[in-house]
Amino acid sequence: MASEIRFILNDKEIYTSENPGMLVLDYLRRILRLTGTKEGCKEGDCGACTVLIGEFEGDKVVYKPVTSCLMPDAFG
Questions:
Q1: Cα separation of 71 and 76, whole Å?
Q2: Which residues contact 13 (CB under 8 A, 6 or more apart)?
Q3: DSSP class per residue in 17-59
Q4: Pairing state of beta strands 5-9 and 12-16?
Q5: Which SS3 state, helix, strand or coil, does residue 69 take?
Q6: Residue 44: closest CA among 20, 72, 63, 18
Q7: Residues 6+ apart with CB under 8 A from 61
Q8: The overall pTM is greater than 0.85
Q9: In this structure, which long-range contacts are made by residues 32-39, counting pairs with CB atoms below 8 Å and at least 24 apart in sequence?
Q10: Which residues of the chain register pLDDT less than 70?
């Protein structure tokens, strides 16, 4: 049984128990139907699937770009 993953996406709290090995790109496009994130090379080279990940550092959120085709859904 997969454990639940909780995160905020576009100002909305998301809860999912999808397979934690699923790529973020696949989760966004196939499960949530957010097709603005594009699938290009699926190897992390072209940048078409880039998303921003925000993490708290102290009292502010710091964003970093990541290629979602290489990032498992567990956000690890």
A1: 8
A2: 6, 7
A3: -S-TTSBHHHIIIIIS--TTSPPSSSSSSS-TTEEEEEEEETT
A4: antiparallel
A5: coil
A6: 72
A7: 54, 55
A8: no
A9: 37/68, 39/69
A10: 1-2, 73-76
